[in-house]
């Protein structure tokens, strides 16, 4: 079976985990602090990095800290993982599904504009397949309509927004480090922002709202006499997971090279196929963990089945969220619905070898011939 995606791990992660176990301290401690500092160094950002237990937790906390809650609304593209929608609804707010640009999956700002009202507080663009090249337009839009921007950057750790790495500029940026992302900490995520009032809130609400606990935890201590002012959650990262993340961070450049080689191979072999469309994104600025292609003429599902029979896993990123029972809209989102029927992700992870990626291409071609 050629896997769609997979964590790329070796003895280095095992050694890192053993180091933490040897300390007999598994909670949030010095490893988390180091992971946060090392992310900051890698991204060369002046923003504060706050590590949390998942990308979903990062989005939930970021939204809450921005004042999103009951009676407010958040603009979000329909094509995203359901985590984006659940993070919004977890605050009590309403996720307002917006259409996407059919050629790259990015939020369609013309459509988003139609959905703004007095309750709209935040726009949450998703860097679909790590594409963050249109963020300038989002920030212009947000300024005009007085919205905050929470970037769902789950796909784009190490990728570029213009000539800057995602996380160097912007309002609030949320990464995911789940098992198959650009780097993994097992499960995990991070929030980046320069907003001081947000930083202080986020530090507290990742640890049940206990004032000032984050700092104490870094040195394996905790607060005993404390106040709580806000709803908090148990969303901090553990030292075990941070140790895995720190090890993966050392490999990020090599992961990038390996994924790029595969992406370039797919582009060179699939561009000329008339039955398939590649996304229109700047692949040079991308560091992506998925390679979605658009399969035209209602051939997506038959191709998916064919590849499965040949031992090649594929994925659907994503079905439109506005068609799910919980998030169903009374309006249609034409591009998202079409995209949801055409999109198919083919295998991409650092451990794929040449023989495997050649087989993926050959079997796609076999299907159409
Ligand atoms: C677009 C998007 N947003 C949010 C998330 C949530 O991240 P996590 O799985 O770390 O909670 C994911 C993860 O798959 C995602 O793909």
Overview of this protein structure:
There is one protein chain. Helices cover 39% and strands 14% of the residues. With 369 residues, the protein is an alpha/beta fold. It folds into two domains: 11-250, Aspartate Aminotransferase, domain 2; 252-368, Alpha-Beta Complex (Aspartate Aminotransferase, domain 1), CATH 3.90.1150. The strands form three sheets. A seven-stranded mixed beta sheet has the order 1-9-8-5-4-2-3, sandwiched between helices. Strand 2, helix 4 and strand 3 (94-98) form a beta-alpha-beta unit. The mean pLDDT is 97. The structure holds pyridoxal-5'-phosphate. Pyridoxal-5'-phosphate binds at residues 54-56, 80-81, 83-84, 126, 152, 154-155, 176, 178, 189.
What are the defining features of this structure?
14% strand; alpha/beta; 7-stranded mixed sheet; Aspartate Aminotransferase, domain 1; Aspartate Aminotransferase, domain 2; 369 residues; binds pyridoxal-5'-phosphate; 2 domains; 13 helices; 3-stranded antiparallel sheet
Q: What's this, in brief?
A:
The chain is α/β, with parallel strands linked by helices. It folds into two domains: 11-250, Type I PLP-dependent aspartate aminotransferase-like (Major domain) (Aspartate Aminotransferase, domain 2); 252-368, Aspartate Aminotransferase, domain 1 (Alpha-Beta Complex).
Mean pLDDT: 97
Structural class: alpha/beta
Largest sheet: 7 strands, mixed
In the CATH classification, which architecture of the largest domain applies?
A: 3-Layer(aba) Sandwich
Evaluate the radius of gyration.
21 Å
How many structural domains in the coordinates? 2
